[in-house]
Design a protein that fits this description.
Layout lengths: L5 H20 L5 H22 L6 H4 L4 H10 L5 E4 L5 E4 L1 H6 L16 H13 L3 E7 L5 E10 L11 E8 L1 H36 L6 H33 L8 E3 H19 L2 E5 L6 E3 L2 H19 L2 E9 L7 E8 L21 H6 L6 H11 L3 E7 L3 E9 L5 H6 L1
Parallel strand pairs: 7-9
Antiparallel strand pairs: 1-2, 1-5, 3-4, 4-5, 6-8, 9-10, 10-12, 11-12
Length: 421
């Protein structure tokens, strides 16, 4: 069997060896890339060793598949973009991930035609001049905003000529998800700190007043103590919601297995919220046709879901608040049970609806805090429904009220009950 061309063998070996080196000094490199780098290096090294011995390969090797082809196939399946350029920054090779990221990337064309990033191009020149690997950043804004860490390393010349200039390998690691998670963490800490700081400052102010000028003022003391109690309850609700959200997220991947009746949960919550509705002048009613509405779920978590939805409708909607239950056949997802909470209040502007389930997001911050809201209610609802394999739909029109629908899979009938039916 004839040998693979020397350039093809060297290219496969150099690419694989470079990926191994880059993956080694890249602290956050993709696990799959690091896993594939070793067999690539082994294949490339064996190919070079066999070529350097001269003559025909042994009969045992003649039956083996073409090693450069195997190395190229492995390289193509690395999920991170990998690009090989020569000393003129002309593209020699690129895997499918690189072509997907840079649609204008073409072989035997300058890299600058597809990658307009001065820091990366300057980094290639730096690596060619010094021979030392380096890291830089690359960001895209179209079609979506993404951030990459570009790791640039030098490849030795195939024949080892002294003083020869190497080629260059670029390994791009996607930082988009990590940066988004970090931004979410920073926002969460900032929002939680702000929500706790406000009532704490109020409490400290009233305590100092009671210890000083209002020490002997009975009427002021009673009024201040009532305000302090309200602020303390606000902090308690916030801490309870944070703990509830943390517990739900911790078990979000574990689907409940117990069967509960959604009708009894809805009836219990409507009865519990009736006094609040009376105080706000709202008419609260439940419509549920006869028969149980079984779903697989955690009773306490579903109670919290219905409580949040009904309480929001009473506080921010008002007027007539109607809670209904219905069955919805679905050929794709199977039979489902829908719980709908509808009010005829002022409604929600459409630009706010996609963000309602974000932590601490409020349509009207002042009104929400005045009503005692924490900004976490719908976030708890969303994550609870994720755990229950359910869906949440919010429809609203300014001046025409809001409709919130919770759709849960119907629990399969138990064998004894099915036989009796």
């Amino acid at each position: 069997m004839p040998h693979a061309p020397r350039s093809a063998v060297w290219t496969a070996a150099a690419v694989s060896g470079s990926i191994l080196a880059l993956a080694g000094w890249a602290s956050g490199a993709s696990t799959l890339a690091m896993t594939l780098a070793l067999p690539l290096a082994v294949l490339g090294g064996r190919a070079l060793a066999g070529r350097s011995q001269g003559g025909d390969r042994p009969a045992a090797d003649a039956a083996e598949p073409d090693r450069p082809a195997i190395a190229e196939a492995l390289l193509a399946n690395i999920p991170d973009p990998v690009i090989l350029v020569d000393r003129r920054a002309v593209v020699i090779e690129a895997n499918s991930a690189a072509r997907a990221l840079l649609p204008n990337l073409k072989l035997r064309h300058p890299l600058s035609f597809a990658l307009r990033a001065p820091d990366v191009l300057d980094g290639i020149e730096e690596v060619l001049r010094t021979g030392a690997s380096l890291k830089t950043l690359y960001a895209t804004r179209v079609p979506t905003e993404r951030a990459f860490e570009v790791q640039i390393g030098a490849l030795p010349m195939p024949d080892g000529r002294p003083g020869g200039q190497p080629n260059v390998m670029l390994f791009l690691r996607d930082l988009t998800s990590a940066r988004r998670l970090e931004a979410m963490r920073v926002d969460f800490v900032a929002n939680a700190s702000h929500e706790l700081r406000t009532p704490l400052a109020s409490l400290l102010g009233f305590i100092e007043t009671l210890q000083g000028p209002a020490r002997n003022d009975g009427l002021a003391r009673e009024r201040f103590l009532a305000i302090m109690r309200t602020q303390a309850l606000r902090m308690t609700r916030l801490i309870d919601d944070l703990l509830s959200l943390s517990r739900i997220e911790l078990r979000e991947h574990v689907a409940p297995t117990a069967t509960v009746d959604l009708a009894s949960i809805a009836r219990q919550m409507v009865d519990a919220q009736a006094p609040l509705a009376g105080e706000r002048g709202a008419a609260l009613a439940l419509e549920a046709p006869d028969g149980p509405y079984p779903v697989l779920g955690e009773r306490d978590e579903l109670l919290r879901v219905v409580e949040n939805l009904v309480e929001n409708a009473v506080k921010y909607g008002g007027g007539t608040v109607l809670v209904t239950l219905s069955r919805e056949p679905d050929a794709a997802r199977g039979p489902s049970i829908a719980l709908t909470v509808r009010d005829d209040g002022p409604g929600i502007p459409p630009e706010h609806i996609p963000r309602l389930t974000e932590r601490f997001y409020r349509v009207d911050v002042a009104s929400s805090r005045q009503q005692g809201g924490t900004g976490l209610g719908l976030a708890i609802v969303k994550h609870t429904l994720n755990r229950h394999r359910g869906r949440l739909a919010i429809e609203s029109e300014v001046g025409a009220g809001t409709t919130v629908r919770v759709i849960l899979p119907e629990a399969p009938a138990e064998p004894a009950a099915a036989a009796a039916q």
